[in-house]
Amino acid sequence: MAKHTKKETERVVWTGEWVADRLGVSLTGEDALPELLGLALRRNPKRAHLLVSNVLGKHVPQRPGVVHGAGLGLGRQVRELLGDADAARSVVVGYAETATGLGHSVADGLALAPYLHSTRRPVAGVERAGGFEEEHSHATSHLLLPEDRELLSGDGPMVLVDDEFSTGRTVLNTIKALHARFPRARYVVVALVDMRSEGDRRHLEEFAAELSARVDLVAMAAGGVRLPADVLERGQELVAAHETAVVERPEHPGRAHERVVAEHVASELGSGSGPVPVSSRRADVERVALGWPDGLPDGGRHGFTPEHRERLEDRLPTMAARLAERLDGARRILVLGNEELMYTPLRLAEALDAQVSGAGDGGTPEPSDGAVVLSAGGATPVRNGTTAVRAGEQDPPVGGAAVYFSTTTRSPVLAVDDPGYAIRTRLSFPAHDRPADGPGERYAYNVAAGADRTRRFDAIVAVVDSHSDLPELYADGGLLDRLAAQTDRLLLTVIPSYSPLSVSQSGAPTEPVGRTADETAVSHTPQRQAPSMSLPEPLRGPAFSSYTADEVGWLLQDMSGLTLEAPTEEREEAIQRGGAHYAESLPVEYQPSEEYQALFHSALRSSASRIARAVGAVTETVLAERTPRRTDTGNQPPRPVLVSLARAGTPVGVLMRRWALHTHGLELPHYAVSIVRGRGIDTTALRWLAAHHDPADIVFVDGWTGKGAITRELAQALEGFPGFDPRIAVLADPGGCVETYGTRDDFLIPSACLNSTVSGLISRTVLRDDLVGPDEFHGAKFYRELAGTDMSRAFLDAVSARFGEVAEAVATDVKELAATDRTPTWEGWAAVERISAEYGIHDVNLVKPGVGETTRVLLRRVPWKILAQRGAGADLDHVRLLAEQRGVPVEEVDELPYTCVGLIHPRFTRGATGADGTAVAS
């Protein structure tokens, strides 16, 4: 029997065959074109066919080295064409959305020039420097929004980059619009392929002559497309016929349906390929903070300079390593960019590929004259017994993992699961960036494996910018929901959206380079947050916090990528000296001992019913007294909107929401906001609340009162926000500071025993001028790494389980509260002033009354001593244990209105504590 080599048994299928056979469309020109391009059909009234690039990294997942290498090669050709002198005077402009990454890569190859890409995203406050229309695109309007206006106003060459030239009209529109404002003598047009007709080529030459400008053209390959006269009508009919094959299949109960396009191709494959399988096993979303360089643009929307490129290159290996450590064992990895956000995900993918594949250069070919080496000759897998060859994909290194790259898009394309068709599968999902042109569907192509399971990605890294990090991203049917059904491991990383108008970038902030613990604690003078205009959106679990998405919306920004923790003694010294505010850094998270954890569980068992009773009393009081009664005919009274003060108030807010649902079937909205003593409440959060709810419906919630400092802070902060009620509802009010409470007993609330591990794994809030701009929420960290010790849901569930047994007692309590004079007595504040004077502290901020506040002192600050009510029992077991561990004396006293009071060390130098970090006697 004759032996056949692999080469002899391969059957190469061009990914344009399906369209060519049905519509009579064909490519003419250079032999390389079928390697670079496939064909598909789309819903577009101007052009039915779509040239699908195998090297662009948009519709077809490709090795990132191939994608970046294509642009690098073209850019080097442009530099050779211009010479270094003119190259250094030039500016590169890429087209949104498909060529933003290609243009960036061309600028990398050119090396000496800044880069700008057009955008369809208006940016508030950024003046438009120009714009133009794209003839055949699904979305036609382009904006140019450079941070530096001189980027476009120079007289050096302009390099215009698009993925393809089909007619040249887009280039004409661009040059015409820009030349009228910023005339220059030379333009260079760059594309992967030049597919213009002879008539279109002549038109461009005539146009350039009229401008008295030179126009050069650089492309990887040239040719044309033969189109039958009726191709548009026939193409639309074909699309309409095959879109009826969209199948709605349930993923599992409670999930949105997965939209899958299926096409039966019996003539080619012997049987229909059927619908794309949807896995019953869904990947959890794991958010990864990269440590994005502070102030570095996320792309070229507002300009990207060679200096920016150097900073990015320097940090890429470190950022890729953070992804790689979460991808151990993955073999086929997709890094998925998001619409215009192409270059950053591409470079991350290339750096990641270098780390996980075992190839030193990440599989990047060395470009030569703009050519890109394709390992498989542009073919796709076939299933008739011959060797499978994938379109445009480089084979992974032997024994190594392989990384691929592609991007979501707004362009609707028909998907047909056939090896001779370029778009085999389509995932659709709603836009998650609140686009200026309104909501609409977005798409990820060739991400689902379809009938060929060898194409399946076992890990996907979704990369979005913070402008797109909105609830729609996490919703059922949203992008993450769609991706989770297609892979075993799903990572999400959010790149801060660069804004020329703010010192810190919008969205999730990034780690400051080279900042020491001392600088973290002391280097920023507190300022009150300025009023602003644009509003971000809340964060929700599980992407932010271990609470479920419906339990609370965090009006915060995610600072998980920052190093904000500083040693307790350094923080205390900086705070007391006035060099820093307590909200500018975080204490190191206390890791409880086994003995302390046992105390927590014991306290929870003994006090769960007591807490449930207080939750019921305060919730019923709010529903009865704090819900505005409106007289609109036919309208039901509005439900209160719970707004907890993060983070101690948040578990209480969740419990109040649960009580209302358990007892009355009411689903109360619940948000968490930051308030900082001496600096006020988060004003951006207030404006968000006012924009989405009637301020009269807002009820602020906290865990307990101490001396009432936050109560006073809130009242002062709301003076400039009419309509909000400054009264706080709390679980326990031992200080007599509020009128809406569950109890005025000072007892152990177990949520005070722990830090983030009983508060959804969220840190206390952070407010620092270099991190929080006027358009941004205050920040906090999500300690995902502490998930193994998280007690947040255990605490909530233990208390909620007692709701039924305390219902009668709650009804009695509510009646008694309604008949009681609950006017604040401020007894606690008077006691604090007395203690401050008696103990020679002379600063009420260093006196922390009540079990909850005393616990905080022992966990976060430098404690001096603890005052305990004589005869106090088990409520103070955890306080005594913590005090013993830190070497802090506990002094029993009489006539104390609280169960205990914690005193912070009044000496602010580190010399006031021993080398072991414990307090010393005065």
UniProtKB/TrEMBL annotation:
Residues 522-532 have a biased composition (Polar residues). Residues 826-905 form the PELOTA RNA-binding domain. Residues 545-799 form the Cysteine protease StiP N-terminal domain. Residues 298-355, 401-481 form the TRSP domain. InterPro entries: PELOTA_dom, PRTase-like, PRTase_2, PRTase_dom, StiP_N, TRSP_dom. Residues 36-223 form the Orotate phosphoribosyltransferase-like domain. It holds the Pfam family PELOTA_1. Transmembrane segments: none annotated. Keywords: Glycosyltransferase, Transferase. One of its GO terms (molecular function) is glycosyltransferase activity. Coiled coil: none annotated. Residues 501-538 are annotated as: Disordered. This is Phosphoribosyltransferase.
